[in-house]
Amino acid sequence: MSARSSAPRRKAKTVRQVCFIVGAGPGIGAALAEAFAGEGYDIALFARGPSKLRDLCAELSRKTGRVVTAYAADAGDEISLKQGLDIARADFGDPQVLIYNAAATVLDAPTQVPADRLVEEFRVNVTGALVAAQQVAPAMVKARKGTILFTGGGFASEPAMKYASLSLGKAALRSLTYTLAQELGTHGVHVATVTVHGFIQTGTRFDPQRIAQAYVWLHRQPKGHFDTEKIHK
Q: Is the dihedral of CA 110, 113, 119, 125 positive or negative?
């Protein structure tokens, strides 16, 4: 008769469920934080002025029972963005969900957009999305799961003269989404964009709360059934 080991069994380490939202604030950012907190995630919000999000963090924590914290990060500044993400990861651990919701919107026709401003806005609209994805992807690839979602726009396929810079940015962001999906999808990481064909307005089809559910819908998709784009019209 073999003797049983009296050593206590080790409990499996519980992985904290965390969602990072870059480009947080009223509107879609706040709605996304509430939606994913409702899915059981603690939330890290990133904005240039995190102090402005204190009331939102407190309200969402009270409402959902999840930890909601704001961090300083400029989506258009690679160093600032990386530093903000690093600090949040030190506090929360690696996120299972990254949402990039930052955008620079300045009205101008193509001939009126200064070249240096176009580059500056591109850093926010596209480069920041790539930088954020590059920071969280390694851990997701290692775990063979994770979700990276981008806030796209109808200007990607229907560019508007008065939104020349943003139209360029949304087109590039959509392209980035598809190439990242091709690269990371083979490792079990879901990359997708929610393409919003309209202007945000509470109480309409473009209510932030309704739009946020499109992100949740994409996140819930099982492996083998990943969509790369969800169009919200």
A: negative
pLDDT at res. 8? 56
CB 139 within 8 A of CB 94: yes
Locate the domains of the chain by residue range.
18-232
Alpha-helical segments (H) within the chain? 28-38, 54-64, 78-92, 115-122, 128-143, 164-185, 208-220
Exposed, middle or buried: residue 62 (CB in 10 Å: 0-12, 13-18, 19+)?
A: exposed
172/43 Cα distance (integer angstroms): 27
State the DSSP H helix or E strand holding residue 73, giving kind and residue range, or none if neither: none
230 neighbors 193 (Cβ within 8 angstroms): yes
CB 34, CB 12: distance < 8 Å? no
Give pTM, 2 decimals: 0.92
pLDDT tens-digit series, residues 131-174 = 999 999 999 999 999 999 999 998 988 999 999 999 999 999 99
Q: In this structure, what are the phi and psi dihedrals at residue 18, rounded to the nearest 5 degrees?
A: -130, 140
User: Bridge-partner residues for 108, per DSSP?
Assistant: 163
CATH-assigned architecture of domain 18-232: 3-Layer(aba) Sandwich (3.40)
Distance separating alpha carbons of residues 150 and 142, to the nearest angstrom: 21
